[in-house]
Design a protein that fits this description.
Shape: globular
CATH architecture: Alpha-Beta Complex
Number of helices: 9
Mean pLDDT: 87
Structural class: alpha/beta
Number of strands: 9
Distance between the termini: 31 Å
Length: about 230
């Protein structure tokens, strides 16, 4: 069985990542998280890499049925150790998209804060995500601390699925959900989001200097996107 720890509170000492696997995959035509990639699936690839950096790995599923499908897939596959996933959390909100998934994680696991990676970003760099979480933790004592720290690679917008969220974000998501707001960015508002640009990240450490962030945090949405990262298929 996949390891579960019901009732455990994931506090700031336990660095937690949530793999957002609840998307509809409508443009791909099949559930992207199970697509083969480098000998395993997108999801397993992210789990293995997440476990090298984070203390807790949680998966956000689209529904209870989807959570069970993921659980069965991981147990049958055997590609990842049974101890690497701490819980699979079903989104119990209807039609709220990523916001509902985030709220469900807060309510079930009750973490002080966590970072997220979309499961259709199989090459997401875990060191970068850990940096975002550390930045959020460093600011947490301030009364003006942001609710989220998001990576901003593209000039137009930050990436809510490559980000870190605090408990303050849950309160804002909850209020927005009552108005039917699905977007985490709209729910939080610009004044509650701290962005980390590619330039700032690369200046912060030589480890990040040579990373191609646009490729590492690229969403694989369509069959053509998938062919580009898996040319042998």
């Amino acid at each position: 069985m996949i390891a579960k720890e019901p009732g455990v509170h994931y506090n700031e000492i336990m660095k937690t990542i949530v793999l957002l696997a609840g998307g509809k995959s409508s443009r791909m035509g099949q559930d992207k998280i199970f697509l083969p990639y480098r000998g395993i699936s997108f999801l397993e690839h992210l789990i293995l890499r997440s476990s090298e950096v984070f203390d807790r790995v949680l998966i956000s599923a689209g529904s209870p049925e989807h959570a069970e499908q993921i659980r069965c897939f991981l147990e049958v596959s055997g590609a990842v150790s049974q101890n690497l996933v701490n819980d699979i959390i079903a989104d119990h909100y209807d039609s709220l998209g990523p916001a509902g998934g985030l709220m469900s994680v807060f309510e079930k696991a009750r973490p002080e804060c966590f970072c997220v990676a979309a499961a259709d970003m199989p090459d997401a760099d875990m060191g970068v995500l850990s940096f975002l979480l550390d930045r959020l933790n460093d600011l947490s004592a301030s009364p003006t601390a942001p609710a989220a720290v998001m990576l901003k690679i593209h000039p137009q917008f930050p990436e809510p699925c490559a980000a870190a969220y605090s408990g303050k974000a849950y309160e804002l998501l909850q209020k927005a959900a009552e108005k039917g707001i699905r977007s985490p960015m709209k729910a939080l508002g610009e004044d509650q989001i701290l962005t980390v640009t590619e330039e700032e990240l690369k200046r912060s450490s030589p480890v990040f200097a040579k990373l191609d962030l646009k490729q590492l945090f690229r969403n694989i949405n369509t069959a053509e996107d998938y062919r580009q990262i898996s040319p042998d298929l």
